[in-house]
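Hi support team,

I'm filing this because I wasn't sure whether my run with adenosine-5'-triphosphate finished correctly. The job status page said complete, but I'd like someone to confirm that the output block is well-formed before I use it downstream. Pasting the exact inputs I used:
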Amino acid sequence: MVNVIELRGVSKCYGKLQAVYPLDLDVQAGDIVGFLGPNGAGKTTTMSMMLGLRRPTSGTVRLFGQPPSSLQSRARVGIMLQESGVPGSLRVDELLRLFQSYYPYTLPTAELLERAGLVEKRHALVSALSGGQKQRLYFALALAGDPDLLFLDEPTAGMDVEARLHFWEQVRGFTALGKTILFSTHYLEEVDALATRIIVIDKGRIIAEGTPHEIKGLTADKHVILRTNLPADLVNGYPGVRTAQVQNGELQVATTRPEDFLRRVFSEGWEVNDLRVKEVDLETAFLSLTEEVHV
Ligand code: ATP
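And here is everything the job wrote out:
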């Protein structure tokens, strides 16, 4: 079967800066890929090259076996970038119709409005939409051509909690149709909930790849959770402790050495109640992975 996305030796230099080192990547139909990395890691650059918006310094990109700029692949791809730069002087439904006109096959305007939660705003000027509403409009525009592959670059930036939940519900509906998604976000709980596969990029290189479960398993960190009179500030200075914070009245400590931490807590005579030791969440795993490279 042809890969939906295929990268072979793709790299990018901006002058002297090597933003992306040669990388290979295969994404298959139905994959939901969370593309993660700290600021400046090279996510947007890589996505832009996948889309044919930036030319790689070396290597080849194929979408559905074709160059990304070919009509065949463009007709099957929907894009939601961080800055979409659409004309603000059009009304929401006018802009949707304009985008629909670019594609051979489109979803009906009413369905696009419904999916984006913009039915009530269909006659509003684009310039009059709030930041979160604009994001939803960009999502509707990305779906206009009923794409088989969707690129979402930090799609929920600027959305409130309710809008984010609605957004991911819509994305889930889209994935249930067997479509393929590649998305970047800084909200790691979204990746954990949605992605079938995670790619972590840092300083222009892929440093980890796998299911959310596998990525969490790559770090030696554990979470120790307890009720205690021990202050979090003090714990942050303990060796092997990555973070310590109080949540819902409980101290949560991410550490590579839970046994050493607990030995010290007991030997210093602090109160300990409701003690649990758990696997870390994706956010902690991500921090630990990217920090290892930064050292
Ligand atoms: P963020 O999470 O902050 O959006 P990112 O992972 O998407 O970051 P990129 O935008 O791909 O990162 O940037 C990768 C590197 O390339 C950064 O060091 C950035 O400063 C640099 N860079 C990006 N675009 C350009 C450009 N047009 N000209 C020069 N350097 C650039």
